[in-house]
Amino acid sequence: MDKQAQDKLKEQAGVKAASLVKSGMKLGVGTGSTVAYLIAELGRRKKEEGLELAAIATTSSRSKKQLEDQGFMVTELAAIDQLDLTIDGADRLATNFDGIKGGGGALTMEKNVAINSKRVMWIVDESKLVDRLGGFPLPVEVLPVSCEQNFRRFQAEGLKPAWRMAGNQRFVTHYGNYLIDLKVDPIPVPHSLAAYLDQTVGVVEHGLFLDMCDEVIIAHTSGAIEDRQ
Ligand code: 5RP
Q1: Which ipTM value was assigned to this complex?
Q2: pTM
Q3: Residue 76 a catalytic site member
């Protein structure tokens, strides 16, 4: 699929998801190019239909700026007891709704917002669908203090680590950490890998989002917009 066609599908998924948002909701808003379409449509609904959210939290400074430009007041997640709904993109989506996220590097905040939501909805174009998780490097956010040891340990475990780069520098996350992308593909047992990463000292968060998503909006090249729950 070429980029223009994919962007069109991303827009359709974002617009459909925005139509499911109701005034009075406490909403979590993720990060990425699909989410950018969601925010644009939320802004349109605010101006033209009077959509008013009770609270809105987001997962990156990019989304925060776009939301503020649309007239929304963004609140820190810590100040909200629980979000009603979080809408986010995903890099890969398996048939059981498990996903890989973090292509944009915002995985830590994305997971925090997701687990503090009553419902989680992902918006994707059909190119993100996979039978088994894989087809995309798995991001792992690591503390700089022990990142070299983490990298060597991942190498020894056969997880094929690569530093995420921004030009010729290491990519630095919002929290001042580095990202290691694991090129293990497909991921044989996602829950085992998640458990291993969860208990590895120095790992802040990883991009395996398992048992978290409740609903997905999928835009297909056929023109169908599927709402799968
Ligand atoms: C950022 C993410 C994004 O949700 C994911 O990368 C999808 O992005 P896009 O909508 O641009 O394809 O996880 O960390």
Answers
A1: 0.98
A2: 0.96
A3: no
